[in-house]
Amino acid sequence: MTQSPHPIVVLAILGAAASLILLFTVFRVRRAGLKVLLVLLAIVTLAPGALVMVTMYPEWLDARFRSYKAFYEDIRLGMTREEVMAVQAKHYPEGGPRQKPRIMIDEAESLTFFMNAEVPDSWINCEGIFLGFKDGKVSAKTYSPD
After folding, report:
1. How many CB atoms lie within 10 A of CB 12?
2. Which of 59, 76, 87, 103 yields a CA-CA distance of 20 to 30 A from 44?
3. How far is CA 105 from CA 8, 22, 112, in A?
4. What digits encode the pLDDT tens for the residues 48-68?
5. How far apart are CA 98 and CA 105, in angstroms?
6. pLDDT in the model for residue 83
């Protein structure tokens, strides 16, 4: 079964293509007013693409996401629960700039973290790290974006 891209992604790609065409046209036009208009239109057509990129990669602008994704990347299969908690302590030291992720499920066979929004009543609260354990070691890890 084939999967088509989301319409907003298609809009972003079309906007980027239109922007490139407008910017190439700037060099072929002689009038300064028309050049300015074409550059402004190019910037406007890039807006959907920029919005999609910021939505897909929030860590580019928000340090909370950078810290949380770095924490996820440092978790390796085969680690013990204590080693996972040591990795968490490395990325979220006491008194550091970021607040520790909340542990939602702490069972023998699973450990689930949710990113701390760090802002009361924030809509950012569902980035999750799901770890599966077998014989006391991480056997599976999954990152779930908000």
Report:
1. 23
2. 59
3. 34, 52, 5
4. 888 888 877 777 888 888 899
5. 21
6. 95
CA distance 91 to 97: 10
Q: What is the mean pLDDT of the chain?
A: 87
Sequence length of the chain is: 146
How far does the chain reach from its first CA to its final CA, in angstroms? 26
In whole angstroms, give the CA distance from residue 43 to residue 105. 46
Do 48 and 12 contact (CB within 8 A), yes or no?
yes
SS (H, E, C) the chain: CCCCCCHHHHHHHHHHHHHHHHHHHHCCCCCHHHHHHHHHHHHHHHHHHHHHHHHHCHHHCCHHHHHHHHHHHHCCCCCEHHHHHHHHHHHCCCCCCCCCCEEEEEECCEEEEECCCCCCCCCCCCCEEEEEEECCEEEEEEEECC
**Chain-centre distance for alpha carbon 118:** 17
Tokens of 102: 């909340």
Q: Count Cβ atoms within 10 A of the Cβ of residue 8 and give its class: 0-12 exposed, 13-18 middle, 19 or more buried.
A: middle
